[in-house]
Amino acid sequence: MPMTSLNISLPEALKDYVEGQVASGDWGTPSEYVRELIRQDKERRLGNLEQGLIAAAEGRKVEIPAADIRKKGLVAALRARTRR
After folding, report:
1. Domain edges within the chain
2. What is the pLDDT of residue 61?
3. Euclidean distance between the first and the last CA atom of the chain, given in angstroms as a whole number
4. Within a 13 Å sphere around the CA of 45, how many CA atoms are in the beta-carbon half?
5. If DSSP codes are grouped into helix, strand and coil, which group holds residue 84?
6. Which of 33, 38, 39, 57 is most enclosed, with most CB atoms within 10 A?
7. Largest CA distance in the chain
8. Count of other CB atoms within 10 angstroms of residue 26
9. What angle do CA 49, 53, 55 make, to 5 degrees?
10. CA dihedral angle for residue 78, residue 50, residue 3, residue 10, rounded to 10 degrees
11. Residue 80, Cα to own-chain centre: how many angstroms?
């Protein structure tokens, strides 16, 4: 997969933490560590969305006005509706 760069700024304490994680030997570089964190976050969010969709499918029917879907997008409208 082709790579591209993204520069981020961290407070010194977080930079030290990332470097410590890399030094533990589980990751070769800070980039590998950050990529893994992003993958985990993505999986967690997709899992939460999947659980929410399953719960919605098994639960009571929810009506969402088309205007809300157009304004917020389907996923955001569903999330807003389930938080009520």
Report:
1. 13-83
2. 75
3. 41
4. 8
5. coil
6. 33
7. 52
8. 10
9. 115
10. 70
11. 17
41 class by beta-carbon count within 10 Å (0-12 exposed, 13-18 middle, 19+ buried) = exposed
Contact present, 76 and 68 (Cβ < 8 Å) = no
Q: Structure tokens of 26?
A: 């589980």
Render pLDDT for 4-63 as a digit per residue (tens, 0 to 9): 999 999 999 999 999 999 999 999 999 999 999 999 999 999 999 999 888 878 877 778
Instruction: For residues 1 and 15, give the distance between their C-alpha atoms in angstroms, rounded to a whole number.
Output: 26
The length of the chain is 84
> What is the pLDDT, as a whole number, of residue 7?
94
Residue 36 neighbours by CB distance under 10 Å:
13
Decide: residue 24, CB within 10 A, 0-12 exposed, 13-18 middle, 19+ buried. exposed
Residues 62, 56 contacting (CB under 8 angstroms):
yes
For tokens 């304004």, what's the residue? 71
pLDDT at 20: 97
